[in-house]
Design goal:
single chain, alpha/beta, seven-stranded mixed beta sheet, four-stranded antiparallel beta sheet, 14 strands, 16% strand, globular
Length: 394
Amino acid sequence: MSAFERALHHRLEQQKSAGRYRRRRSQRDASVHTRINDRGMLTFCSNDYLGLATHPHVVEALCDGARQYGAGGGASHLVNGHQEIHDRLETQLAQWTGRERALLFGSGYQANLGVISALMSRGGHVVHDRLNHASLLDGTRLSGARLHRFAHGDLSGAAQALAGLSPDADRLLVSDAVFSMDGDCADVATLARLAERFDTPLMIDDAHGLGVLGANGAGTLEAQNVAADRVPILVGTLGKALGTQGAFVAGSHALIESLIQFARPFVYTTSLSPALAAATLAALDIVQTEPERRAHLHHLIQRFRRELLTLALPDITLMPSETPIQPLLVGSEQAAMALSKRLYEDGILCTAIRPPTVPPGQSRLRVTLSAAHTEADLDRLLDTLERCCRAVTS
C-alpha cells in the first residue's frame, strides 16, 4: 500500500473512531413514500418541500425537454451551452423574484462560491451570521476576503462588525434567509437597514424560503414585506421547493453581467441541463398557480408543532421554527443516532444531524415536512416518534 493510500485509510479510521463515519443509503426514488433495500419507508428528511420532484407534470416536462433540447448543455454557457430554454427560465425567475435579471448556476453551492468570489477580493470584508451555510463561508475563503461572523441573529453584533470596517474597503453583508439546520428566519428588513446604514450590499440566500414562504411563494422577502431593491443580491435554489436541480442569482443588470464576466463557477462549468430548465419552468408554474400546496404544508407544520408539544417527549426540545424544517434537539450525538436508528427500524427515515454540521452538544433530528405528506403520514410520524423517544430514553 502506498503512503498516499495509508494516509487515506488512517484518516477514514479516525472518522470511524470518532463515530462520524457517514454512509449513503440508496432509495428507490425521491418521493416521501419510497423503498430502501426493498422495504417501504416514509421519509421526513427531504428538502422537496412541495412534493414537486416526482410531480407528473414536472417529470413529463423533463422528458419533453430532453427530447426537444437534449439531456445536457454540451458546453459552458459562454461557449455554446446557453440555450433559449435557459433564457426563458432566467426571465421567469427574475419576474418571480421582482428583479431585472437572473443567472443560472449548476448548484446553490456553485452560486454562493461564484457570487462572493466574483464580488470580493483580498483586502475586502464579508460579514456573516454564524449559522450561514458552508457554501457562503467557503465563497468568502475562496475570494481571499476577511471573514467576520456575528452570533446567530445578533443584529447588534452585525452592526458592530460593520461599524468596525473601513469605509474604503470592499464590504458585503451575507445571511441565509431560512437557516437550514434550525429552520428559523433571518430578520431581513433589519439586515437591509444595517446594510443601508453602512453603505454595504446585502446578499441573501433564500434556498429554503423560495416556493414555501410568502403569499405567492416568492420567499422570505415576500413573507417579510421587504422590497426587492433593498436586497441587491438574492440567491435561490432549484433543488428544494422547486424539486429539480441547480440554482440562480437574481439582481440588477449590472450584477448579472458582472457574474457572467467574473464568477468562475459560472464561466468554467457546463451549463445547466436544458431538460432540467424545462422541468423547472413547469415546477415554477405549479408554485405560482397552486397555492393550496403551500396551505397544506403550513397546516402540517402547525399541526406537527402543536401535537408534538403535547407529547412532552423526554429529553427532546422542539426548536422554534415556522418553516418546513422542524428540528428536534436531542443533544448528544449518540442519542441522536440511536433515535434515528430506532425510527429507521420502524420504517421512518429521518437522519441525525451532528457535528461538524452543528455544534457539539446540539445534535438533532431535522424533521422536514412536505406538501406530499398526508395527514395519515403525520399521524404515523407523531406516533412513532413518541414510541421511539420513550424507548431510547427509558
